[in-house]
């Protein structure tokens, strides 16, 4: 493809006027290294000297950026979403996102180096993401290490057989029992760990990093009760005669059959219960509320209900992603700290909010690069400590 043709296609893509057949032509052309270099040069000129007209109408920008988001999702690439109040950074990130889609990840890091000036400083190599790992505390006080690879029976606990089914999942096979025959197990995920548990009634639980779930190995006939620390997502099997109850930092969540998420980390300001399907009752001291799908109950001294929660972002951890939309940096760094098992130290007071959409499987350095690209923040990594500064 001639350079003039490449420039023309890029201009139309920036103007949001490139038809699908020409977009395919541009993508195909950019598989060649020579065209990738030309593309990078053109983007650099566009950002530095305004060679391309930058849309000034906010609504038009939003339309273009939504198109970029859709393309990124189809290509399954990581994408940074900077704060809306930084309009210049937003447009630069949009161009960078198009570059990811069109020119590939390797070329992206060349451009991100030019835009951000540097990558996060790593003192002793990169930090790898977490994975499927946990410890199981049995009724006799002994521990079993859990991972992604082992399969088969682990133990007999009361009337239940404990099975590791592979892929980071634990299952219990057993029948209802009398109260006197009940024994309890606890699954602990470390910082940098996650695990799934299928409870004796078939209820599925996803346990996030630095969390625990305590439960009976078989449920009595009239009630199912478990205890959570940290964060867990539940898909509860419906039994009208046997309500399912979750205890979390003094909050009780009661359900019959539903899907919901409980965030009860001790370093978070509140216990948050978010309902995806069905109905739950959230009680704390003398207060109680009933949620409908899409609502979140935030429990402190009392209970506050939030409407229209972004459930896709809230459940991103369960689906292997970080998804934060206009969130304070400190809250994002708490998630990063748990998953990568690192400590975070803020050298400066950063009050800006940030947004990011990226896989939880990427190394720490890549995640921090995307955050740096939005502007206003820089990171240094020294072994297992992240230093955050302006």
Note the topology.
Elements: H1 3-14, H2 20-29, H3 33-49, H4 58-75, E1 79-81, H5 87-103, H6 105-116, E2 121-122, E3 131-132, E4 134-137, E5 143-146, E6 152-157, E7 160-164, E8 169-173, E9 184-189, E10 193-198, E11 204-207, E12 211-216, E13 224-235, E14 244-248, E15 251-255, E16 259-264, E17 271-277, E18 280-284, E19 287-291, E20 296-299, E21 303-306, H7 311-314, E22 321-328, H8 329-340, E23 343-346, E24 353-359, H9 364-373, E25 378-382, E26 385-389
Parallel strand pairs: 2-25, 3-10, 8-10, 13-14, 23-26
Antiparallel strand pairs: 1-24, 4-5, 4-9, 6-7, 7-8, 9-12, 10-11, 11-13, 12-13, 13-16, 14-15, 15-18, 16-17, 17-20, 18-19, 20-21, 22-24, 25-26
Helix pairs in contact: 1-2, 1-3, 3-5, 3-6, 4-5, 5-6
Summarize the entry for a quick read.
GO terms for molecular function: sigma factor antagonist activity. This protein is α+β, with helices and mostly antiparallel strands and 390 residues long.
């Amino acid at each position: 493809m001639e350079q003039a043709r490449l420039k023309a296609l890029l201009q139309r893509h920036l103007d949001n006027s490139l038809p699908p057949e020409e977009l395919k032509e541009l993508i195909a052309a950019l598989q060649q290294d020579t065209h990738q270099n030309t593309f990078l040069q053109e983007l650099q000129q566009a950002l530095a000297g305004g060679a391309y007209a930058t849309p000034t109408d906010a609504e038009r920008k939003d339309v273009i950026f939504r198109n970029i988001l859709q393309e990124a999702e189809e290509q399954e690439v990581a994408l940074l979403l900077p704060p809306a109040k930084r309009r210049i950074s937003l447009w630069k990130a949009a161009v960078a996102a198009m570059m990811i889609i069109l020119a590939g990840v390797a070329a992206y890091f060349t451009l991100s180096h030019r835009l951000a000036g540097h990558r996060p400083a790593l003192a002793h190599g990169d930090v790898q993401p977490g994975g499927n790992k946990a410890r199981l505390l049995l009724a006799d006080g002994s521990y079993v290490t859990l991972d992604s690879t082992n399969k088969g029976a682990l133990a007999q606990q009361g009337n239940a057989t404990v099975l590791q089914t592979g892929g980071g999942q634990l299952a219990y096979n057993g029948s209802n029992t009398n109260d006197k025959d009940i024994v309890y197990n606890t699954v602990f995920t470390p910082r940098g760990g996650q695990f799934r548990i299928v409870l004796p009634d078939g209820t599925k639980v996803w346990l996030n990093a630095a969390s625990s779930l305590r439960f009976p190995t078989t449920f009595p006939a009239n009630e199912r009760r478990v205890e959570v620390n940290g964060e867990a997502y539940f898909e509860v099997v419906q039994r009208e005669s046997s309500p399912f109850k979750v205890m979390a930092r003094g909050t009780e969540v009661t359900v019959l059959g539903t899907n919901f998420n409980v965030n009860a980390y001790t370093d978070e300001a509140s216990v948050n219960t978010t309902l995806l399907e069905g109905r739950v009752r959230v009680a704390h001291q003398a207060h109680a509320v009933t949620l409908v799908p899409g609502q979140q109950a935030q429990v402190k001294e009392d209970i506050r209900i939030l409407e229209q929660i972004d459930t896709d972002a809230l459940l991103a951890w369960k689906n292997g992603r970080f998804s934060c939309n206009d969130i304070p940096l400190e809250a994002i760094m708490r998630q990063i700290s748990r998953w990568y098992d690192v400590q975070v130290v803020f050298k400066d007071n950063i009050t800006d909010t940030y947004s990011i959409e990226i896989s939880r499987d990427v190394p720490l350095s890549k995640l921090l690069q995307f955050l740096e690209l939005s502007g206003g923040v820089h990171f240094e990594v020294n072994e297992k400590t992240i230093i955050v500064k302006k």
